[in-house]
Amino acid sequence: MTRFYGLVQKELLVLFASPLAYIVLALVVLVAGLLFFDHLRAYNQILFLFQTSTMGGFESGTVPDHINLRETVFFPVMENLGFILIGLIPMVTMRVFAEERARGTDELLTTTRLTAAQIVAGKFLVTHAFVVLAMLASFVYPAMAILQGGVGMQHLVSVFAGLSLLAVSLSSIGLVCSAFTKSQFMAVVSSWAFCFVLWDWSWLTPFLRDAPALAAIVDGISIHPRYSVFAEGVVRVEDLVYFAGVVAVSYAAARFALDWRRVTG
Amino acid sequence: MGKRFRGDDVTTRTGSPGEGHEARDAHAEATPTGVRIEARGLCRRFGDHVALDGLDLSIKPGEAFGLLGANGAGKTTFIRLVTGVLLPSGGHLTVDGHSPASDPVEVRKRLGFVAETSRIYPDLRVRAFLRFAGRARDLSGPTLERRIEHAIGRFRLEDVADRWIGQLSKGYQQRVSLAQAFLDDPPLVIVDEPTSGLDPLQQEEVRAVLHELRGKHTLILCTHDLSEARELAERCAVLHKGRLVTEGPTATVLGGADPLALFRGEAPADPPPPSPPLEAVR
Q1: Element (H, E) at A226
Q2: Which whole-number Å values give the CA distances from A43 to A48, A61, A67, A228, B16, in the listed order?
Q3: Which of A23, B171, B188, B237 sits a CA distance of 20 to 30 A from A184?
Q4: What's the rounded Cα separation, in Å, for the pair A196 and A215?
């Protein structure tokens, strides 16, 4: 336990010694804020139009039910924020393993008494904690929309859980990409590619009408539909299992990468 | 001559690695120093390239052993096999009876490793780095803090203990690297190219501290610097393209008219007597 604690502390120090951590934190908050205020501005304009004109066939002063804070601001913000995380999170994960290899410090790390399992677990833990912190910082505006829109605390918790699980899953994929290379550039580009490819396969299902089983599998591996369910305020066991599965598979793959390096050099 | 490091007032490594450090201090006089390393027919290939080709080598407890050879001779590959960072392609290797391939943590309990210059975390302060290195060796609480302070004093790091490692000169970085390797006074210390990239004064400082450690640890010195090997190693082996060219007392091996010929893989005309079998040493 002492070794693991030492590793976690070292990883935290290295992470926050880098300006990249602060830049990514600032970017996440900035992007979330810009998205929120842009949608809020659009929402206000729509409200103004409906309340001051008869356009759209509605009587002046009436607003249709689907024009509300939840549908017009909250959902699109969450949707866009989730997608933008694909761009931001690999910028944090790219250096975690790859930088150690590029600097040669991995040799120092692997000649301590830390096992490969502890090294991977420590790096995963610190990275996950960081992305959850980033989600917490970015969640201020969506939380305001939820509370102001009268959606309720239960929904708020569900949405934050979804956002955090998404961030943790994306970071796990990024860590695997980092574990297989010593080039941070390769790590970030491959992470973007994997996360983007896994994001949504629903576009493929129309082409798989003759193979419903395959269509179900393709639908099942997509991240976006699972994330959307949380955004609706619904927490399903199958979605929790899915995100836990992404983390577990990623952990195993990163562990394999470290063991494989003993074979390949 | 550069400044000397402070004397080694830590009790020589004692007891089994599994024991507490306090208990180890208590058994100081009872146990022999260092570990035994035995390689038989050790091979390592990287694809078609043969980095080590059937290496037979015995290193005795407490011995300062030099591993010599030109770049690409297989020195670093050998120490990576000893530390368990790499798996062998064939042959047999044990450290105190433990295989680095199948039981790397057991080997690393006995190991202090000093990598080439600057292979330490530039984003950490010296003290924080030593704290991490100590915890990674199961040190904690007051024992850890005492060992850190001792290492800082022993390697003359007081002036830079709270500075970022990345801001230090190469000489200081190498001292930090040595300090972390000796935090728990391990029986086996492997030093890879310890003076590479250092200026002459810094080289002298590092050699001075390694000189003090002779006889107290099994020291494997990986170098292509002949004067360094003459000064520090009691015995040495010369590798060329993964094969053992010669092995024996350093004075004998490097005492020939053209020791550099060994680096070119030319076997000595009058080879030193082979090392006794390990059973005889025991």
Answers
A1: helix A223-231
A2: 9, 15, 8, 21, 71
A3: B171
A4: 19
B191 touches A at CB < 8 Å:
no
Min distance B213 CA to chain A CA atoms (Å): 20
Please state, in angstroms and as integers, the Cα–Cα distance from residue A130 to each residue in A89, A135, A248, B255, B280, following that order.
10, 9, 18, 58, 57
Ordered alpha helix ranges (H), A180-236: 184-199, 212-220, 223-231
Identify the residue whose tokens are 């305001």.
A144
Q: Are B67 and B58 in contact (CB under 8 A)?
A: no
Which domains can be identified in chain B, with CATH numbers?
33-110+187-282 (3.40.50.300), 120-185 (no CATH)
Q: Supply the ipTM of this predicted assembly.
A: 0.81
Q: Do A18 and B108 touch (CB under 8 A)?
A: no
Question: Of B244, B215, B164, nearest to B33 (Cα)?
Answer: B215
Question: Could you tell me the pTM of the whole model?
Answer: 0.83
Contact residues on chain B for A182, CB-CB shorter than 8 A? none
Report the residue count for chain B.
282
Rounded-to-10 torsion of CA A233, A237, A242, A247: 90
Interface of B with A in 16-75 (CB under 8 A): 46
- In total, the C-beta contacts within 8 angstroms joining chain A to chain B are 87
Residue B204: CB atoms within 10 A of its CB come to 17
Give yes or no for A182 touching B (CB within 8 A). no
| Cα angle, residue B275 at apex, residues B273 and B281 outer, rounded to 5° | 140
- Taking only the tens place, the pLDDT of each residue in B178-229 is 889 888 888 899 988 888 777 787 788 788 878 877 777 889 998 888 888 8
Q: Is B108–A111 a contact, with Cβ atoms under 8 angstroms apart?
A: yes
